[in-house]
Write a structure and sequence with these properties.
The protein has 136 residues and is mainly α. It has a domain of 88 residues. Helices cover 72% and strands 0% of the residues. It is built from 4 helices and no strands. Helix 1 runs antiparallel to helix 3. The longest helix has 37 residues.
Length: 136
Amino acid sequence: MLKIGLVFYLCVWGMAIIASQALWRTAETAGVIEKVEKFVEELFALETFAFDTDKIFRLYMLAGLVLVIGGTALTVVLVVLFNLISDLMGGIRFTMIEEETAVRRRRLRIGEDVVPSDKVGRRRRSDAETERRNDG
């Protein structure tokens, strides 16, 4: 589980890095970053304010790696805990029942009449109506 968790969290981390860089570059191209920097300057009455993109992404990548290691460790601990509880309690049992979806057809014997299925239903209904009339 350690290997699977590590690969999974590394893939998520990689996708997050790529997506955030693409989003940041798009925001820079659209001029959104400059507007936010000017807004912060005006809000706090600063002479200059600018985002240090390289430092932001280095810290972002480092924090992501810490989360990868933490997530992998948490996954391994939870799997070990699940296995211990499963051993103590007897585990979880799954029963799979395979049901046939096809309708079985009865083979006809020589001399038997073939009755369509819609007439069988009508015949049953009429038998029930006859019994109600005789009882009532």
